[in-house]
Amino acid sequence: MSRAAITGASGYVGSSIARCFREHGWDILKLGRRSNPPYELGAEPRIDWRGIDTLVHCAWDFTLKRWPDIERVNVRGSVCLMQSARDGGVKRGVFISSLSCFEGCRSMYGRGKLAVEAGALRLGFAVVRPGLVYGDHPGGMMGSLEKAVQASPIVPLIGDGSYPQYPVHEADLAELVFALSQADPPAQPLSAASGEAVPFRELLRRLAARRGRKPIFLPVPWPLILAGLKSMEALGLNPRSDSLTGFVFQNPRPDFEAAQRITPFRPLQ
Predict the structure, then answer these.
(1) Beta-ladder partners of 132
(2) Are 90 and 5 in contact (CB under 8 A)?
(3) Strand, coil or helix: what is 81?
(4) The pTM of the whole model exceeds 0.85
(5) Residues in a beta bridge with 6
């Protein structure tokens, strides 16, 4: 039986990928704080890689706000993990990046992912940049948006709601990762989504319609939202103002063709 080691397998995206591998008959080693031995991103990996055919690295510490901490834990920790897997004889691997990551990106999250991508490609890992991941019971960002449109009939919009989103179904993303775990890695990162640019307002409208709701949208200028998030951070609260930066300053020309040649991606209904 083939075996995959997966970090972040308890999270939304990681659990979808783990489920896909199991459905294909693979055994899964979850790497996390409760694994044996435990693994924590940023710490020295003490993992027995014998019998592991591929590593899928999904984990990311979103609690970190300062670049030195992001660079130490997420960037160096991720590259150290992948180097350890290579040294341990793991033949293939996939790093789960983000569509927020591209040359010239302004968010620290995107910059951090970009730095890890360079290490992943150097080590012969495939790199996948998913769009906004969704499913029948979404988690992550899509799950938060779905809760927001159910919580109140009035839904705030970032700006005029025109910012494009690129949804990708969790099952399609997982199949792409599974395919890459058994193939030579592409030389460049693969952007994973259907390619349909769904404006943020339309995305929220579709999410609300699935629950039989018709929200009233309230546009709010993004600089005002950013100021509020930074004020909350200054008070020791845990909003992610950096996420708003990535939302507003997006990749202007994502290319989905290479990933679509490997796996078909369904459009958002």
Answers:
(1) 167
(2) yes
(3) helix
(4) yes
(5) 30, 56
How many residues make up the chain in this entry? Answer: 269
pLDDT tens track for 85-113: 999 999 999 999 999 999 999 999 999 99
Rounded Cα distance between 65 and 105, Å, is 17
Tell me the pLDDT tens digit for each residue of 182-215. Answer: 999 999 999 999 999 999 999 999 989 988 889 9
Closest CA to 116 of 61, 45, 194: 61
Query: What long-range pairs does 122-125 form, CB within 8 A, spacing at least 24?
Result: 123/79, 123/82, 123/83, 123/86, 123/93, 124/86, 124/92, 124/93, 124/185, 125/55, 125/57, 125/82, 125/92, 125/93, 125/94, 125/95, 125/185
CA angle 261, 132, 77 (to 5 degrees): 90
> Going from the N-terminus, what domains does the chain have, and what CATH number goes with each?
3-260 (3.40.50.720)
